[in-house]
Amino acid sequence: MAYMSQEGYDKLVAELVRLESVERPKASAAIAEARDKGDLSENSEYDAAKEAQAHLEDKINRLKMTIADAKIVDTSRLSSDAVQILSTVEMTNLTTNAKMKYTIVSENEANLREGKLSIKTPIAQGLLNKKVGDEVEIQIPRGTIKLRIDKITID
């Protein structure tokens, strides 16, 4: 089961619709076009189109499974007392005094450019269930970082 926001769920459904209604017909058309070029035993364009279609179908099936397993989190029932999924956490790196702000989201919704951090990352795991004012040391691939939680909100 994957916990996610309504926004993340809606994006997955929209992506599935796009893949099924736009990309799937394109893949079929590419196969038909390659097939029209003659001998299939030596037609690399046909083989490539079939492989692309197989990758697309795999992606569609994985997306369907993710959507089927999704559990939408009701943000009105969440508390900002401690860090949990869909919490937006403002913190300070105590070594560099750098301020950071991340929202803890499901793996499918993670996007660092948007400040959305996967719940499966070491930082998110280290922050879970911590409260404002807590200082945590988190082991990351580059070593250990020390963070202080300054604010927790639910957007």
What does this structure look like?
By secondary structure, the chain is of the alpha/beta class. The model has no long low-confidence stretch (mean pLDDT 92). The strands form 2 sheets. It has a 5-stranded mixed β-sheet with strand order 5-4-3-7-6. Strands 1-2 form a two-stranded parallel ribbon. It is 40% helix and 26% strand. It has helices at residues 6-35, 44-69, 122-127, and strands spanning 2-4, 70-72, 87-93, 99-105, 116-118, 135-140, 143-154. Helix 1 (6-35) packs antiparallel against helix 2 (44-69). The protein contains 3 helices and 7 strands, in the order E-H-H-E-E-E-E-H-E-E. A hairpin with a 2-residue loop joins strand 6 and strand 7 (143-154).
